[in-house]
Structure formats: C-alpha cells, structure tokens
Specification:
The complex is a heterodimer. By secondary structure, chain A is an all-beta fold. Helices cover about 0% and strands about 55% of the residues of chain A. Chain A is built from no helices and eleven strands. In chain A, strands 2, 4, 5, 9, 10 and 11 form a six-stranded mixed beta sheet that branches. A five-stranded antiparallel beta sheet of chain A has the order 1-3-8-7-6, with no helix packed on it. The radius of gyration of chain A is 14 Å and the shape is globular. In chain B, strands 2, 4, 5, 6, 9, 10 and 11 form a seven-stranded mixed beta sheet that branches. Chain B has a four-stranded antiparallel beta sheet with strand order 1-3-8-7, with no helix packed on it. Classes of the chains: A mainly beta, B mainly beta. The interface between A and B is medium-sized, with 24 and 29 residues.
C-alpha cells in the first residue's frame, strides 16, 4: 500500500534557524508530491508541489523541497524560520496507482517557532 | 480571492442522527472532494465527485455516507446514522480540472468539526 511518513510530529526551532520537516513516501510509480500548511482554524493551503521536471521546487513563504527518488524523500526546508511559520505541515502524495484525483496525507508535523 | 467555504464550522449531534455538512466550492471548479481527520490522526480521503457522480471513494465511504450537488453551488456530505467514530474534522476541497496525467491543486475549506455524542 502507498503511504507517506512524516518523521517528527512536533518540531521546535528558534526564530531565524533552519526549518527541516521530513517526509518519506512509498510508491512503486513516480508520485506527485505536495506540502500543505494549516494555520489554526483554517483550511489546508498548498505550499508547493512536485509533479515532473526540476527536483528542487520552491513554494510560498520561502519554503522549498527537494524530491529525491533514491531516498524516496521530499523534505521541506526554509533557511530562516519566522514566527508566522508556526503551523501544522502535511506532506501528501497523489498519482499513485492511477489515483490521480485523491491525496494521501502524512500524519502532519506541528512546527513551533520560539523567539 | 476565491475560497472554499464550509458550514457549519462545528456540528454536535447525537449518535444515530443524520447530519449534512455543506460546502461551497470555488465557482469555476469541476472536481469536488471530501476528506476527514479524526483527532490526532491523518487526513484521509473519503470521496471525489465529478460531473454529478462519484469518481472515486475510499473504503471509509460506506453506505452511511452520500454526497450530492443539489444546485450549482453547494456540495454536501450526508451521514445517515452517525456513529461515535464519525467524530472528526471534515474538509471539503475543489479543483479546477484534472489534466490528463497531471494534477490540479486542490483548494481546501476550513473544515467542519463534527462531534457525535
């Protein structure tokens, strides 16, 4: 079965520090990969996505992620954390086994940013 | 900026009662979805809907669940006889198209928290 694993349900960083949120997937075919962010009392907002082409993708708010097929990973990074980055982050995949029109989510990582 | 809206934001119901969760997708979108997130667990796909019919559903989406697009703007999820385990946050999403071999961004609503007592 296809799945997404996010390592670390909670990550805490200092303002200005590097943010690294980990995501690994399992798939027998090349997937489409996504990162969504959820701020309190809001819906899921797309941060970035990888479909084909360049493996390093840039998203909104200074985030980027790199698709590494050999490691089946799609980790999310941001060089310098801001207080406003505190939120829950979800990695998701689609396009697995023909299921192009559904997303399979990881369990989420709650990011805390402290002064 | 267009957005997906959901009502109510919180619904409390008694076990065995029927509930209808409502969503207004973005107006030019053609694909509609429901997901749910049980507290502390993953966001799970329930169903996708296109051209007035279900295009895909998960094993969670059993006979107790149904979806409908009753008019040109609303998209509803009905649970006929709620169970305690139906308590969750339910998210509606919509996307513009599903390009061949590709994927269009799904835009999510803020969710409805369903509490079954």
């Amino acid at each position: 079965a296809q799945s997404v694993t996010q390592l670390g349900s909670h990550v805490s960083v200092s303002e200005g520090a590097l943010v690294l949120l980990r995501c690994n997937y399992s798939s027998s075919v090349p997937p489409y990969l996504f990162w969504y962010v959820q701020y309190p009392n809001q819906g899921l907002q797309l941060l970035l996505k990888y479909t084909t082409g360049a493996t390093l993708v840039k998203g909104i708010n200074g985030f980027e992620a790199e698709f590494k097929k050999s490691e089946t990973s799609f980790h999310l990074t941001k060089p310098s954390a801001h207080m406003s980055d505190a939120a829950e982050y979800f990695c998701a995949v689609s396009g697995i086994a023909g299921g192009y029109n559904k997303l399979i989510f990881g369990a989420g990582t709650r990011l805390a940013v402290h002064p | 900026e267009p957005e997906v809206t959901q009502t109510p934001s919180h619904q409390v119901t008694q076990m065995g009662q029927e509930v209808i969760l409502r969503c207004v997708p973005i107006s030019n979108h053609l694909y509609f979805y429901w997901y749910r997130q049980i507290l502390g667990q993953k966001v799970e796909f329930l169903v996708s809907f296109y051209n007035n019919e279900i295009s895909e559903k998960s094993e969670i989406f059993d006979d107790q669940f149904s979806v409908e697009r009753p008019d040109g703007s609303n998209f509803t999820l009905k649970i006929r006889s709620t169970k305690l385990e139906d308590s969750a946050m339910y998210f509606c999403a919509s996307s513009e198209t599903r390009t061949s071999g590709g994927f269009d961004e799904q835009f999510f609503g803020p969710g409805t928290r369903l509490t079954v007592l």
